[in-house]
Amino acid sequence: MASIVSICNMALTNLGKGNISSLTEGTTEARACNQYYSHTLEVMLSRYPWSFATKFQSMAGVTNPIPAGTFSAFDVISGQAKAYELPTDCLKVIDVLSSQVPEKASDLGEYGVPYKIANRVVYTTISPAILCYITKETDPTKFDTSFIEALSWELAARLAMPLVRDFKVRNDALNFARVLSAQAEMVDANETRHHYNHLSDYEKARA
């Protein structure tokens, strides 16, 4: 079963370095992993709408002045312009939906509505508003195998300079990471997504 330490050890092995037993041990390798792992994970998650990190959630409305130019004067005066707070675990917005969640991520374009985001507030003209977004998923047991492999090489590329100090090693690791990321995205895209981790939450919100 994957863990943060096991993923870090994969990255270290990719660089020919020794393994660690925890991120808090007093080794150079552990300190480097502790410094770069979380950021590397967020970068990987934000690049593509991975099925294991995609959520649907009904957004909470907030009282917020509508920025000038966001909507027409008619929308603002008539009360059609709405403001919603982004969920705290939102890493990247994929789409805003009015009432229906598609069975596949590829169908999102059929249901999405126009929106704008400013200071973690979503502005749109619908109510209720359902947010489709990439969450800051940190549980490695939920990661796909192909994603883990790509993540380990992405992390290796960031660890290369502090641990190996070799540009060629870093560039080689980065190239491996890009190839594996593309493969992982293809695997994820080819899977029919008839479920999402939080679809039941959305259904409850509509009940």
Descriptive report:
The protein has 207 residues and is α+β, with helices and mostly antiparallel strands. The protein folds into two domains: 4-45 and 139-190, no CATH class; 51-136, no CATH class. The chain contains six helices and seven strands. A four-stranded antiparallel β-sheet has the order 2-3-6-5, with no helix packed on it. Strands 1-7-4 form a three-stranded antiparallel β-sheet. A hairpin with a 2-residue loop joins strand 5 (116-118) and strand 6 (121-124). Helix 1 packs across helix 4 (145-163). The protein is elongated and about 60 Å long. Residues 104-110 and 192-207 have low confidence and may be disordered.
Strand-pairing-aware structural class: alpha+beta
Query: How many H/I helices?
Result: 6
> Unreliable stretches, pLDDT < 50, 5 or more residues?
104-110, 192-207
Total count of strands = 7
Whole-number radius of gyration?
Answer: 20 Å
Largest beta sheet: what is the strand line-up?
A: 2-3-6-5
**Which word captures the global form?**
elongated
What's the topology here?
Elements (H helix, E strand, L loop, with lengths): L3 H11 L13 H20 L6 E5 L1 E2 L11 H6 L3 E4 L4 E8 L18 E3 L2 E4 L5 E6 L9 H19 L3 H24 L8 H8 L1
Antiparallel strand pairs: 1-7, 2-3, 3-6, 4-7, 5-6
